[in-house]
Amino acid sequence: MAWNYYVFMIPAFLLSLLAQWWVSSTYRRWSQVRNRYDLSGGEAAQRLLSHAGLHEVRVEMAPGRLSDHYDPRSKMLRLSAGVAQAPSVAALAIAAHEIGHAQQDRDAYGPLRLRSALVPVVNIGSSLGWILILVGLLMNSLQLASVGLLAFAAGTVFALATLPV
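^ thats the sequence. predicted structure below, dont judge the formating
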């Protein structure tokens, strides 16, 4: 009976790995190409925020790689070192993308509000879901695997809410 979970979870797992690989390889390629303005992502972010009239949004460095995000609660744009300090095409694109979220926040864009509300649930579900699924399958406990599947499903809802954002 546990094979049903394998039929659904293995393709989902492989699709997740493929998506991560694609994002990483695209970032890696375009982070090697200097932008024509020779602006770092941090400099571009400051200019774009000023141009958009988003003077209340602050920019700070975030630890990690591809950890860039806009936090609507603190009005903070966090850029990873590779984006904040590099004058690459990827850095400009990522900075502009995150500023788009700040503009959505200013405009009270509904899907962004939904996405922000789901973040705490998804942080738990996305990390704990896979573990519960695998442990449940290894222990032949469909109940535990089902709980993991529900936790993982929260990540799917988050991804769907993120599409319009």
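The first strand starts at residue 58 and ends at 62.
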